[in-house]
Queue: 2 jobs
Job 1
Amino acid sequence: MLNRSVPPVSHPIQAVAFPKPKTIELSNGIDLHIISLGDQEVFKLELVFPAGAIFANKPGISGLTAQLMKRGTQSLNSFELNEAFDFYGAYWDISNQLDNSTLTIYSLCKHLPNLLPLVLDILENSLISEAEFTNELEIEVQKNKHNWEKTSFAANQYFRKHLFANDPYGRISNEQSLRAIEVNDLKLFYENFWKGSKPTIILSGKISNKEIEAVVKSFESLSFKQKTDLKTPELQIGKDQVFYQEKENALQTSIRFGKIGVQRTNPDYFKFAVLNTVLGGFFGSRLQKNIREEKGFTYGISSSNVALQRAAYWIVGTDVNKTNANQTIEEINKEIKKLQTELVSEDELSLVKNYLMGSFVGELTQAFEISEKVKIICLENLPNDFYDQFQSQILSCTSKDLIELANTYWEENQFFDIRVG
Amino acid sequence: MIQFEQFQLDNGLKVIVHEDPSTTLAVLDVIYDVGSRDEKSSKTGFAHLFEHLMFGGSENIPEFDTPLQRVGGENNAFTTPDLTNYYISVPYQNLETAFWLESDRMKQLAFNPQSLEVQRKVVIEEFKQRYLNQPYGDVWLKWRPIIYKKHPYQWPTIGADIKHIEEATLEDVKEFFNTFYNPSNAILVVAGRVKLDEVKVLCEKWFAPIDAGKKLERKLPQEEVLSENTFLEIKGNVPANCLYLAFPVVGRYEKPYHSIDLISDLLGRGDSSFLFIELVQKLRIFDSISAYMTGSMDPGLLVIQGSVCEGITYEKAMAELYNTLDRFLVEGISEKSLQKVKNQAESSLVFMEVEVLNKAMNLAIAALAGDANGVNLESEKINSVTLDDIRFWSDKLIKKDKHHVLWYQKNQ
């Protein structure tokens, strides 16, 4: 008779060597990183430019520039450009983050040669016309209004604004700030930060020499001004740590609770990831168990350490029934306190380590996921063995390490408590 | 092309195995042939509430998630109007843990009263978060009962009313489990770095001893053909006026589905689609517009939804949209645009095969619909659609007097 109460024999998860990308330096100095893996004839091509939101002099410029770059070049109007990408079955986007802007394109390998000229055209000859600008601005204003209606969006924005205060990382956009943008702001941003700077290129998927040659040939022709280092101000932390915005008709309160986090260049980064996972980083975390599984206050609660290039922030996010908001904050504080005063049991620690190792190792079987990690290493100038260190540090992490980190990084009076709803 | 083998256990459980040695993961996917369409109208939201309860422990294993996390695995589940799907992904060495966990909850759930109380609250918060506390979140909650007069698609998976969740009893839960959660009503897919022989052994060990249960025959009332348009107006705290049209179409596995799916792509997939170019870019009537299929197994909908520009009246937006739909057959289709949407569809299919978990789920859903190999026939079906098919079905379906209209108006 099968005894179902005894779990089957299981095997510990061993570290896996992080796959090294192949790197080629193009004749114009651009680095091309290649990760080839998998059976499907697909690729992802990413071009990352140091053209993040923080480099523009007003909020919203980098985002609108990215949007306008999809709306036509000197030779192809918006329809023709988009139709061409669609015709070759490509998913593509130009997105902007705080530090960078990225042009990403996925499609089948057989279409790559037809897609590259389009990418090049956008990088060299974007039109950014007055008429398209007027359209896109209206659309952006509508999207922005829509987003501000959501308590979760509003709370995220206010969190960043309060934490980073006057730093460009703390800028948020609304209808008023968007309407202050002029088409020339975008043209200037495109000239300076897209055409003016050197991208990092990452090509992943099932990549053969044919694909590599095509990519090299295309982007070798890019010319750009070799720039001195971009100047960014000294980071400032805000002082207003508490912010509540009532929303009469909201059914839930969106809570964002956190502080400055741990950057990847900090040696504590790895073990802090373990600590964060214990508290709120996965479905079995203490917060999820307490707030969702025991109290039923929310559909979900999680914490994360968001690493940017000049800073990092650590944040707990959840949407709860209005009446439970205070108690939720109390419970978050209690869980933090517990991690500062009581050792995590060996049992719980080994579970968290296995979970982290399992999901990490799982991500290394897929080219697109590896490319995300390679991108981080390149953009932040991390050592090539960063993700090997990550694994060995997870495996060697002790309960004593965690209690120390909890006391170092979660000092009581440093938290920002932002609530909307 | 996804290679697979299939066999059936004596208790009726269908098993599909896809070996993919390129990954270090193993995936175990179980689909139960039950969705919100199988609920009683007085007890809606049950299939989904039940999905939550499946994580509350089983007869021999008090907690579902913990032992899985301990061996490096992850899992989740989702419920649709048609089905409920549970999936586990785990380092391949620890595949047996997934068998142990998944088979025990198929055999006998714990029916823990505490778990019911908590999950009831969690689902109510989910209801609020997804349907009530979002601009336009309640569209389908309010529109489904207008569109479906007879078919149980008239309520969303979360349920018609929070009350049904609030009033659910442990007895209801047990009855639901006994009716739907058994081997003859399920399909198991095992994929990734696994071997057919090994899977056979594990299936015999963990799933074969479970009682077969009864396979239910589904008899759902079908909708009558729409004789005239329906109209619904909602007012709410939303940032912009939105307009929705829904045209009744065939189910996901009926023959002309792919032709109609390509029509929806031509109309409203992406920034080169006909409606987008005409109504967002040229005429500036809408700030955004898209078209998509609900893709349900029983007859579903082709939906067009758009956000109307400020200063444009509903009447004007409707008139321009109808006018543009009229022009679609003449101006919107060509050999080139058809090839474009076929290429997009081909890309989607190939990308679906990149992740082993997606492959497993798609095999499971196809098997539920009657033939696991259906996943491998999609590409051919899409490619065989002709311009004449597009013309025929556009003409037949996009009728001005046989669809549903919804205006979602912002409070002044």
Job 2
Amino acid sequence: MKSVICLECEAEINLDAGVEKNEIIVCPDCGVDLEIVSLDPLAVELAPMEEEDWGE
Amino acid sequence: MIDIPETLLGLLHQYSPSGSEAAAVKWLVQRMADLQFEQSFMDEAGNAVGIKGTGPHQIILLGHIDTVKGEIPVRLEGDNLYGRGSVDAKGSLSAFVDAVASVSIHPDWQIVVIGAVDEEGDSKGARYICNRYQPEIAIIGEPSQWNRVTLGYKGSQQAVLTSRQPITHSSQGGNANDVLLGVWQGLLERVKAFNQGKTMFEQIIPTVLNMVSESNGFEMEGRLEVGTRLPISISPQVWLEEWLGELKGVEVNHQFSGIPAYQADKNSVLTRAFLGAIRQAGGKPGFVNKSGTSDINLVAPVWQCPAVAFGPGDSNLDHTPNEHISIADYGKAVLVLVSVLKNLGISS
């Protein structure tokens, strides 16, 4: 099973076999959103935060 | 020497406030024909429509061609192109056209680009197309900045609160205006309690649009026209029935149906395609939720498909006399859109 290390709390996160590039996963330990930025080699980055903005 | 994108420049020269879009639509229809769209036409609502591909799967890129009033002379200052609609939202619509013009469509797909009329009004153009298309993916053209994707827009509901009271001497107080203001203040207190600890996108944001009163010598009538920006958790119906409907001593009326808030799934195939595309263009992607409403609030609930809003430009410049767009950012937005279509398997 593939796994990645959480960038926030260093927990090991097991990934589903069908994980996709740019998919957002949630660390089960600390709850942070991580984005799969590469499948080979497997790599994650912190997922984009949701900002707020004026807009009609 | 900066190379100004021809579609954007041409569209900015066609000043097109809501209700006066015909010349801009005619220009864009011709522009899409010149760019080898297989079909380009003005539909019955007056929208500009361009189509590439004949496949059974459809993606719609829905921008709007109207702007608010206030013509701004089109001019270039450094990298910034000034003009009414440069940000809201001819920049986005032009980027859609330029991106689609530059790709080859997979045989399974059809791309429809629409420049809708009246988005700044009552969204006549978007309401017309809602039930005439059934896309599998939709991108709405509104400024998010080239490296961000707009996931959410708040809902909206307008209403009129009316109070009628017998005329009393002003020394006694308690006239129709006093009643209205007291009721409104009570509502604001309830809203304040609801909003506690919530983000802007989760909050109820009410505002008074107009207040008038009149008297016939026997009775005074006060009317408060109010507009409210609503979160996902409060539908227009709930706002009318469980909030305004609870107000004592006032009559509540509304001329138009409200618009529910919308928020896209940040883990859909479409948002993934955008995240990859923004990174491919050298950007750090972001998500944004907005305090206003747009055509996505209308079409996304009907189409029930992945839908986000995207476009170059800073929405803080929307509707301002200083409206301008960075040519460099426009170019990056076109690159992102080209990559999105490729990441989705729609183009090669």
